[in-house]
User: What shape does this take?
Amino acid sequence: MDERLYAQLAGRLAHEAVVVATVVETAGATPRKRGARMLVGADTTAFSIGGGLAEARTIAAARALLERGDATAALAIDLGGGPGAAGVCGGRMQLLLRRWAGADDRLQASQAAAELAAGRRVALPEAYDSVPLLPDPRLLVIGAGHCGAALCDAARLLDFELAVFDTRTERLADPAFAGLATYGGDVPRLAAALATPREVYAVLLNRDFAADIACLRELCRRPPIFIGMMGSRRRIRQVVEALPEQAAILAGLRAPVGLDIAAETPAEIAISILAQLVRERSR
Assistant: This one.
């Protein structure tokens, strides 16, 4: 989320002051955790720190900050259910509200946005934000067939930087992959898709057994933090057995990839995979 948020912040600062509201601490049950952020302008908002009354109070406090012209404010949100609480979840949230305005702040935001777009973490001065900014992880989809297209379509709604590989370069012209980083050609070309400072989640959706073996061999040269593979348990076992020299790395292979929701269609399979990735990313 930080990548899109700071790109939007840098653009908005050309014509208005904006408050970045950051969740800096939580305890108990809360709708969002440390690092959640939203933008609040005089008339508009973007992104979310959890919705409901907690978010309404955050927006009101941020707009009061804009009116005062102060640089920062702290905001405590009580969700304990007592008198004056913003909810009954049971927890509490502490937020930092930081007003961004003017040329210096726009430069700071633009520099942060550029670093995030390059896949690098950003630590802003604490006066701006005490929680490091994180670039989107790369979701590397290996296999540009029906399931790969469905996965990319659905993943556009989430905070992933998308990349697609297939030896069949003609498949990469599918509209589902428009605007994404695409890599076609021989399997060693996968190395270019892995050459990023971003965390990489790789999902193999190949159409055949031999392609799985070749792609996994290449992935093991620079292992992503997550490797998942579609296929029957028999096919998965045969693929792993064909790569005995990579047994240690492939012990962490998530296969069959996706949560078990009895998915059958490409769209259902995409949802099951993304649900698993969201769970993994939150750990």
Observations:
- The mean pLDDT is 96.
- The two ends are 16 Å apart (CA to CA).
- Strands lie at 18-27, 37-40, 45-47, 72-78, 92-100, 138-142, 161-166, 181-184, 200-204, 226-229.
- The chain has nine helices and ten strands.
